[in-house]
Amino acid sequence: MTKQTKKRIGVLVSGGGTNLQALLDAEARGELKSGTIAVVVASKPGAYALERAAKAGVEGVCVERKAYETREAFEAALQKVLEERQIDVLVLAGFMLVLSDQFIKLYPDRIINVHPALIPSFCGDGFYGLRVHERALEYGVKVTGATVHFVNEITDGGAIIMQKAVAIPEGISPEDLQQLVMKEAEHVMLPQAAELLCAGRLSRKGRLVTIDNK
Ligand code: GAR
Question: Does the reported pTM lie above 0.90?
């Protein structure tokens, strides 16, 4: 029997990197086993996620969006970093930039993202980070959550892989809600989805994603 080689994962980040930490911890525990985190790419210098990568002995690279005049030039630099490291799949873990259609086509059904709401609520252009939770509280929803989805050309519009609901406690602040959704939903689902993707267990037909049995 041939031993299947691990997929090489590139994690794209922009900030604190708690989702990256969940992925690193899952790999250390052996739960993320069909893939290995080969590089962490930050779009901002000084992103704490880079320190998390260093502590885990994973290479961290900064490809600063602001250093490039156009998105094309930025994405060309990003592509180079990923190709040099023979990356197979991309996990967007708190990555605050929208990738072009052209870039996404380089990794068909091999890019996943975590969004801190139950898509199609509170998603799309302008809905990222803390803002998502502020809007959810303003709207008065009683349940929120997180979604892991394939990345396509529409912001937060790709086929849904997993969702997890979180009940909103009365009077909670946006900051505390963000932490709660991360802990109960994002940090649980993202490593699971990454493992399924790397194990080749996700099948997509149009918008419908199914999880294949082992
Ligand atoms: C997470 O809540 C993630 O879902 C969100 O930003 C936070 C990053 O936290 N991402 C988006 O809003 C993307 N649209 P982290 O850096 O601690 O993982």
Answer: yes
pLDDT digits (tens, 9 = 90+) for 119-143: 999 999 999 999 999 999 999 999 9
Index of the ligand 1 atom closest to the CA of residue 113:
13
* Residues 6 or more apart in contact with residue 186 via CB below 8 angstroms: 18, 19, 22, 114, 116, 146
Nearest to 116 by CA among 77, 52, 76, 165: 165
The secondary element (H helix, E strand) that includes residue 108 is none
Q: Give which of 38, 147, 15 is closest to 94, Cα–Cα.
A: 15
Q: 144 CB under 6 A from ligand 1?
A: no
Tokens standing for residue 155: 């912001």
Q: How far is the CA of 143 from the centre of ligand 1 (A)?
A: 18
Q: In 5-117, at which residue ranges do the beta strands (DSSP E only) sit?
A: 7-13, 35-42, 60-62, 89-92, 111-115
